[in-house]
Write a structure and sequence with these properties.
single chain, Immunoglobulin-like, seven-stranded mixed β-sheet, 17 helices, about 45% helix, about 20% strand
Length: about 475
Amino acid sequence: MKQHKLIFNSLVLFFILPIFILSCNIKSSQTVKISVLTNDRASKEIKIIIYDMLTLADSILSERQIDSTGKAALEFNLTQPTFAYIDFGKYGSSLYLEPSNDLKITVDTIQSPKILFTGNGAVPNNFLYQTAAIRKSYESKGGKYFSYLYPNDLILRLDSLEHDYANYHSTNQNSKSLPENTRELLTLKNNIGVIAIKEECLMVHYLDSSYISQCPKQLLNISNEIPFDQKPIKYRLLDYVLALRGNLGLLKRNVTRYNRNHEANFPKILSDSIEQNKKYTKGDKELLNAMILIDEVELTPTIDSLFNAFKHNYPGSLYLPHLQENRNSRLALLPGKDAPDFSGKTMDGKTLSLKDLKTKIIYVDVWATWCAPCRAEFPFSKHLAKQFKDNNEVVFLYSSIDDLSKKDKWVKMVNENKDLLGIQILQQDENMEKAYLMRGVPHYILIDQDGKIVNADAPRPSSGKVENEIRKLLRKERPSDSIKPKP
């Protein structure tokens, strides 16, 4: 009997032990290790961040405190390659991570932050860091950001940027040792970045007929340059999704620019064109249709129909839970619902919250110093504010989402910009973006005298619609107005 038991135990070990060893090897092969050494004593922690391809929400893959010697070590598992971002607080860098990477990161901040990658996985990350530096050198060359250039000057600058990218690619011997798939992804990131710049410039100037008339065809037909592919989505390439979003934004503006009657039906028009377009894969169509639904604020019959069609066409979609959650959140932002409160610091350091302005009509402008489309709206904001300069029932609230560590830059821009007529706050409530389902800036919100939402995704100042909406609210009879005093 003992002999049979011994044989049985031996057989169990024979079969189980290899499985155990295999599982350990698999776990080990999925582990990513990152060690950091920095001489920046201002940085207290490090975060590795990834982004959701539909909602653009960021999530922390790993985080660690930096010790007193400037060191930190992070360790986490990955099942496939992914793009990410390493955040040191005031600066950071894009990352390309693969399972089993063992990265060493050295940060030197004696003059300006410089990041060097060594170890397993260093080559693609040094590539990303260096090409990001090339792009940064062009962003405000000659004192002008891309969106401030005339179309021909813009094309010339972008041609020079692409030339420098190509030159770096050809002379960087280390990157030539990378697998072809990895090289393609890294090159795609840079190319998509250029496309996104062109889209941004067109978005900023789409109401400027003089600018549009000067645009060459290669700029106006920018959507033809987007290389539709599932790999960037699979590997979380944020630049690719931003380019897709920019493309959708331009399509909407082209549809509604000449015929405002199309605006309400735009989601259906766009969805139909996507489904009929043969250049899109099924995965492309799934994501683009999900983007349409996630960005629409109003729950109209058209949106209800598109949502039901999406569930039917893509029943197992990973985007469905996000869309359902978004739908539920939209219900809480319908006109007449209480506006979620948020707060920020004023120029003199005092805390101001939305509820402090109750009894006022509030037009909220959510912006950032680094946002070119935000700044392009300021002259229109000034004109709008002037229409109500003698009316103390209307408040224009500018809420900046700039990092608190960059307060000086915010203060400087506000002081120098004469178009910002209203109350200025530096937002300190991180939940605001989630509460109002913001997908980016600029973003505008209109709130009535009772603190109720009028429009959680209000028109831009340049739309020409806001003044009329505010005047409607000023004419609105409030319950307190209808109560007559007793004789």
